[in-house]
């Protein structure tokens, strides 16, 4: 016994939302967990820190949004949300448009003033593009939802740099994440419950894991001692990359990575919005976040802006987005089958399940796993 020094019931690999919910719920049931986390902080990609009184999201903008009341009540045990509603502006070569696609966007693009005029315009463009059958990829899906003008100015360039692939090679579900609505409403999400924690996300994890029955070891790589961990612990909750767990034996799943560049300015307001997307193909970043606008109570005198650059993933970089195209989905199913057969190990989270999950979906999946584990 080198690692299971305290008779732990669970080894949890990864201190993101899936692993942290699991540890918290296990502790409420008197079970002891050791969480090991490769990175130096809690919260996975939800991690935040405070700088000049401003909550900065370390891994890109995270806005909590859900229709699931159970999940919403659950996270609200650990934090207060600030009521923030995301209203993204798109900059296409200097032209500004409201997102998601709504009557404001349609007016800005075409000068149309009524839902009927907008629908007619979109229908014309859909017909002209010759789309009659069910959309086979992101490009066809986008054009059939909002027409070619919006596709060309607001989607094609952004999508192709974000994913490093042609829009015709991407699955259509990715664009269906964004609402299309025939009302003047710039709310980026349709969900009933939305916001950002008043103190950032990291304190949620500090609270969740504050228990005598939970120990956390940061800077600890599961793969440095995988076989010993698997042997010593009666049960393992694994939230890392599923292909890495199996030593990439069927091949590597593909991911998309991003990198961030932040800068502090000694003014109160620089870009006038929390998120501005740059939707042309040439600008190397996809969006710029101005963190003080996520949080109305930030101190005066400073503002912090972060540019988000998409990049290819390799093993030296953080995996952000799974690429759920046909080829990768097929490979994932092979790993998933193998994972399912391992009785001792439960796979969860965005990387363990290779799913483009939002935060609420991860919380929900973890709560469901807890129900099954302790029924
Ligand atoms: N998208 C786009 N233009 C935009 C914003 C989004 O074409 O200005 C597309 C793009 O393909 C992106 C997808 O919509 O990957 C989903 O966007 P979302 O904002 O949900 O992505 P996330 O915040 O998860 O990166």
Automatic annotation (TrEMBL):
GO terms for cellular component: cytosol. Residues 153-356 form the UDP-galactopyranose mutase C-terminal domain. The keyword Flavoprotein applies. Belongs to the UDP-galactopyranose/dTDP-fucopyranose mutase family. Its cofactor is FAD. This is UDP-galactopyranose mutase. The keyword Flavoprotein applies. NCBIfam families: UDP-GALP_mutase. Its EC number is 5.4.99.9. One of its GO terms (molecular function) is flavin adenine dinucleotide binding. It is an enzyme of class 5 (isomerase). Keywords: FAD, Flavoprotein, Isomerase. InterPro entries: UDP-GALP_mutase, UDP-GalPyranose_mutase_C. It comes from the Bacteria. Pfam families: GLF, NAD_binding_8.
């Amino acid at each position: 016994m080198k690692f299971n020094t305290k008779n732990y019931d669970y080894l949890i690999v990864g201190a993101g939302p899936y692993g942290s919910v699991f540890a918290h719920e296990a502790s409420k049931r008197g079970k002891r967990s050791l969480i090991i986390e490769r990175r130096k902080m809690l919260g996975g990609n939800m991690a935040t820190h405070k700088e000049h009184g401003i909550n900065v999201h370390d891994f890109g903008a995270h806005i909590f949004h859900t229709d699931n009341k159970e999940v919403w009540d659950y996270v609200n045990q650990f934090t207060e949300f600030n009521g923030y509603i995301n209203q993204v502006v798109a900059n296409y070569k200097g032209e500004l448009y409201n997102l998601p696609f709504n009557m404001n966007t349609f007016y800005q693009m075409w000068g149309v003033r009524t839902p009927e005029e907008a629908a007619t315009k979109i229908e014309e463009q859909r017909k002209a593009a010759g789309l009659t059958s069910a959309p086979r990829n992101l490009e066809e899906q986008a054009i059939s939802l909002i027409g070619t003008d919006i596709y060309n100015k607001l989607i094609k360039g952004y999508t192709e740099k974000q994913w490093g692939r042609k829009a015709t090679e991407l699955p259509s579900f990715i664009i269906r994440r964004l609402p299309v609505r025939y009302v003047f409403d710039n709310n980026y999400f349709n969900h009933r419950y939305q916001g950002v924690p008043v103190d950032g996300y990291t304190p949620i994890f500090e609270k969740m894991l504050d228990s005598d029955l939970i120990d956390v070891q940061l800077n600890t790589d599961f793969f440095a001692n995988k076989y010993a961990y698997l042997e010593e612990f009666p049960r393992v909750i694994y939230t890392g990359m599923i292909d890495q767990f199996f030593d990439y034996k069927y091949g590597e799943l593909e991911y998309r990575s991003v990198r961030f560049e932040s800068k502090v300015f000694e003014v109160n307001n620089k870009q006038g919005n929390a998120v501005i997307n740059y939707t042309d193909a040439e600008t190397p970043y996809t969006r710029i976040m101005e963190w003080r606008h996520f949080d109305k109570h930030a101190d005066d005198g400073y503002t912090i802006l972060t540019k988000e650059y998409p990049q290819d993933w390799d093993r030296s970089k953080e995996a952000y987005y799974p690429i759920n195209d046909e080829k990768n989905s097929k490979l994932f199913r092979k790993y998933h089958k193998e994972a399912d057969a391992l009785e001792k190990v439960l796979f969860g989270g965005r990387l363990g399940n290779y799913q483009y999950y939002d935060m609420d979906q991860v919380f929900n999946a973890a709560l469901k796993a807890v129900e099954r584990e302790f029924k």
